[in-house]
Amino acid sequence: MAAQASGGVPLSTLSPKYLHTNSTSHTWPFSAIAELIDNAYDPDVSAKQFWIDKTMIKEKLCLTFMDNGNGLDHETMHKMLSFGYSDKTAIKGHVPIGMYGNGFKSGSMRLGKDAIVFSRSKSGMCIGMLSQTYLEKIGANQIQVPIVCITERNLSSYILFN
Ligand SMILES: Nc1ncnc2c1ncn2[C@@H]1O[C@H](COP(=O)(O)OP(=O)(O)OP(=O)(O)O)[C@@H](O)[C@H]1O
Ligand SMILES: [Mg+2]
């Protein structure tokens, strides 16, 4: 195990297997879908529309979730793909549903083995990946989340591969 240390004290780490473990809290897929809808509704994103579709990419069935909310920059994408980071606050009486910093991870990994997040925000375009297939292929012993940001509008979407 690649243990990092902070002042000599080991950091707790997360095994890639936890992605599946964590998803099992959703006993049926509809609560997983609800996590993604809640995120688009919450005041930090405040989407007005939300689209769910299915498509085939290289003979793989994929689910797509798209909203027209505020999008993400590099820092918020990193938090989205990490665990336990949630700093949502009410805006003008719009009270957030999310509070644990876990719903995207548990929901997306319940619906698919791999998720790619495409986002456009004021600061630019950003792509992030939470992929069990990738982590298995590279033999990762911790959860690595590739993120590429280019730099400017307001759209977020997910593609989930199974
Ligand atoms: N569609 C989206 N557009 C922009 N940002 C998003 C979107 N979905 C999630 N996020 C960001 O990713 C973070 C993590 O989402 P996640 O659902 O894992 O946790 P949460 O909503 O904060 O809490 P909870 O676990 O209670 O759902 C959110 O706090 C939000 O900042
Ligand atoms: Mg959430």
List the ligand species: adenosine-5'-triphosphate, magnesium ion
User: What is the gyration radius calculated from CA atoms?
Assistant: 16 Å
Helix and strand succession?
EEHHEEHHEEHEE
State the end-to-end CA separation: 28 Å
CATH topology: the name is Heat Shock Protein 90
The main sheet orders its strands as 3-4-8-5-6-7
- CATH class identity: Alpha Beta
| Overall pLDDT metric | 93
Number of domains: 1
**Structural class of the secondary structure composition?**
alpha+beta
Could you say what the CATH architecture is? Answer: 2-Layer Sandwich
The oligomeric status of these chains comes to single chain
Q: What share of residues are in beta strands?
A: 25-35%
The general outline is globular
> What is the overall number of helices?
5
Q: Which parts are unreliable, with pLDDT below 50 for 5 consecutive residues or more?
A: none
**Main sheet summary:** 6 strands, antiparallel
Pfam families: HATPase_c_3
GO molecular function: ATP hydrolysis activity
Protein name: Morc S5 domain-containing protein
Organism: Oryzias latipes (Japanese rice fish)
